[in-house]
Amino acid sequence: MCHFTQRNSTLSFPKICNIFWRFHHTSISHLCSCSKTVSDEKYQDPFQLGRKDLKNLYEDIKKELLVSTAELKEMCDYYFDGKGKAFRPMIVVLMARACNIHHNNSREVQASQRSVAIIAEMIHTASLVHDDVIDDANSRRGKMTVNQIWGERKAVLAGDFILSAASVALARIGNTTIISVLTQVIEDLVRGEFLQLGSKENENERFAHYLEKTFKKTASLIANSCKAVSILGCPDPKVHEIAYQYGKNVGIAFQLIDDVLDFTSCADRLGKPTAADLKLGLATGPVLFACRQFPEMNAMIMRRFSKPGDVERARKYVLQSDGVQQTTYLAQRYCHEATREISKLRPSPEREALIQLTEMVLMRDK
């Protein structure tokens, strides 16, 4: 799993490594291969530790979405039903506490830091609403999408409204640095969507393109939200960089595993159709790695799997190749880097929970 063994490949593992590590890291230490993260502290359940700070999270979000129009309110509340994983807010509050403890041993989350967690979830949900419109998706989190129930036009407006409410909440924090950091997320989401609409002919460029898109569409929100709470809790720029790098690496790993699950999980478990990316014409990690063993996939990638039978044939190639394993290994590398970064902070239950979270990202099945 940890090595590429095919001889007739035009894209070697060192080339891929150079591309994604050079793109995402200014420096990188030697990482151990495929071993589990071992924490010196007692196991800390991230969800248990973050529960106190996330209590009434969705009720507080709904308070930010107070509107007079009943239909708009219903649409905005639709995904804030408390049934989501709240993965992003949980990382944010754990990072806030870890940075506060590192700075002055304070174990309390500031009101402004909790606001960042709320804003992060609002931006994320607005992006899901817009993504479902762009992708013409039918289901999300095991239920019908907003665009399928209310139509595309109203769905776009609902996503816009959630974003505007998040912007108001962000302005209320009253810190121009935090505003700058979190508005970068919205810019990255748009740029990431445009990257997803394009493709590259060169295989090396294609992989770098994929990782850049993954950062902008998924990891930027986590990275910049972590950075924002670190700024609010600690004046040290080194801590801000640690928080940012942790969020970036975990975010990329999260999406890589999401791309793996599109091939390995069943639709009922995932809460959305499988092979969805192929049907949208997208070549994700498992496909790009599989293409090394099955060069005939190049033509399918360039035509975005548009010919009859392309999706089924590409899925078959991926499952016959080591694409899933190699993408999983790549996610492990990013999680190891996230652990290396967060380990620079002073030991605390929250720091250990963030380390444990990297394992949960790798082990998740939905």
Automatic annotation (TrEMBL):
Pathway annotation: Cofactor biosynthesis; ubiquinone biosynthesis
Record carries keyword Mitochondrion: yes
Subcellular location: Mitochondrion
Keyword match Metal-binding: yes
CDD domains in UniProt: Trans_IPPS_HT (cd00685)
Gene3D superfamilies noted in UniProt: Farnesyl Diphosphate Synthase (1.10.600.10)
Enzyme Commission designation: 2.5.1.91
Catalytic activity: 6 isopentenyl diphosphate + (2E,6E)-farnesyl diphosphate = all-trans-nonaprenyl diphosphate + 6 diphosphate; 7 isopentenyl diphosphate + (2E,6E)-farnesyl diphosphate = all-trans-decaprenyl diphosphate + 7 diphosphate
Biological-process GO terms, alphabetical: isoprenoid biosynthetic process; ubiquinone biosynthetic process
GO molecular function, one term: metal ion binding
Role summary: Heterotetrameric enzyme that catalyzes the condensation of farnesyl diphosphate (FPP), which acts as a primer, and isopentenyl diphosphate (IPP) to produce prenyl diphosphates of varying chain lengths and participates in the determination of the side chain of ubiquinone. Supplies nona and decaprenyl diphosphate, the precursors for the side chain of the isoprenoid quinones ubiquinone-9 (Q9)and ubiquinone-10 (Q10) respectively. The enzyme adds isopentenyl diphosphate molecules sequentially to farnesyl diphosphate with trans stereochemistry.
Family assignment from sequence similarity: Belongs to the FPP/GGPP synthase family.
Listed name of the protein: All trans-polyprenyl-diphosphate synthase PDSS1
Source species: Podiceps cristatus
